Amino acid sequence: MRRYNLVLLHGQPGTGADWQHVIAMLPEHISAVALDRPGHGSSRQAGGGLDVNAAAVIEELDARGIDRAVLVGHSYGGGVALSVAARAPDRVEAVVLLASVGPDCLNGADRLLAAPVAGAVCALFAWQLTPWFARVTLRLLATRQGWERAARRHVNWHVWGFTTWENGPLWRTFLAEQKALVREAGTLAGLAASVRVPALIAADPRDSLVPLRNAVALSSALPYARLHPIDGAGHHLPLRAPEEVAREIVTFLGSLADQSPGEQVLAAVRRDAARPQATRLERAYLLGLRALGPLAGGELHALVLLEVTEPVREDRRVMDEDVGAAVVWCDEAVTLARVKPLHGALRHELLLYCGLRGPQ
Predict the structure, then answer these.
(1) Are 194 and 100 part of one and the same domain?
(2) How many domains does the chain have?
(3) CA–CA separation, 57 vs 74, rounded Å?
(4) Is residue 274 part of a domain?
(5) Which burial class, exposed, middle or buried, applies to 258 when counting CB atoms under 10 A from its CB (0-12, 13-18, 19+)?
(6) Which whole-number Å values give the CA distances from 5 to 18, 90, 253, 273, 299, in the listed order?
(7) Which residues constitute the domain of residue 65?
(8) Cα–Cα distance measured from residue 261 to residue 197, given in angstroms and rounded to the nearest whole number
(9) What is the pLDDT of residues 203-234, one digit of tens each?
(10) What pTM was computed for the model?
(11) Displacement of CA 65 from its chain's centroid (Å)
(12) Is residue 248 part of a domain?
């Protein structure tokens, strides 16, 4: 069985310990290391933006003798994973982005937390003056629920109370990263578009910190991406849903073993279309033909589901070419951008299930 090296990158703020439950559920052929990013945990390096973090990850790869890794990033760590993949493509085999920052992640609170004076005051209050309150509250909750259950159920209290930087004030790291996020968020779409490795994007559709539209924007920008919803976990996927995170990572890596990039894309399409718990509308919205890249002339007015190796019905025609595909739907031609090859075993007929109206 093929072996993989996973490098796990926590969010803002956080530590490598956030991944302990995910790591415990990975099979033996997947080796995982969870880093403390600059300005967090045991790191001796001060916090900073994506370039600072990407350089630190590459340095760790060198120090650990890891030639190529699968980067798994949560929240801000997802932005770091993209940065490493764009900066050192020969060192990255694939990326997994969990509730990741991206081109459509910013809101008013993010800008306030990065603002002069106000940002520093908020960071100091949240990460130096009040964590004791979160610790007391969580310990009270643990007396009734048990520590493991309380920490997992009340993740925000746990992160607030117990995230530290051993070599400096955590609030300064938070402020530095928040300023960098506001400054660099506009570059993330272009950064993602330059990543040429397979990507898995996972997000809770009801994440209150990073909205689902950001995950959709990432799946549109990344050339080889599939989008998987994890319902009910909120933003802190590694802490709230470690079982599903580990399962999706294993499934994703299993799909890469003997597939070309094009085959990986179409396999992702088939998996998403087969999810029994998703409604047809959800599948169509999440897929949105992003797996095959942008559509020439804008998005389809009707969202479609796409499956592989099915016979084409008489009222639908699909023409398969070496470097692209032209789709005729409801007597109106819509040409897929020639963004990636369909070759060899991929010359299958595609079946389009139509009839759903997209967002107006």
Answers:
(1) yes
(2) 3
(3) 14
(4) no
(5) exposed
(6) 18, 14, 11, 29, 37
(7) 4-105+184-260
(8) 8
(9) 998 899 998 889 988 988 887 788 888 989 99
(10) 0.74
(11) 25
(12) yes
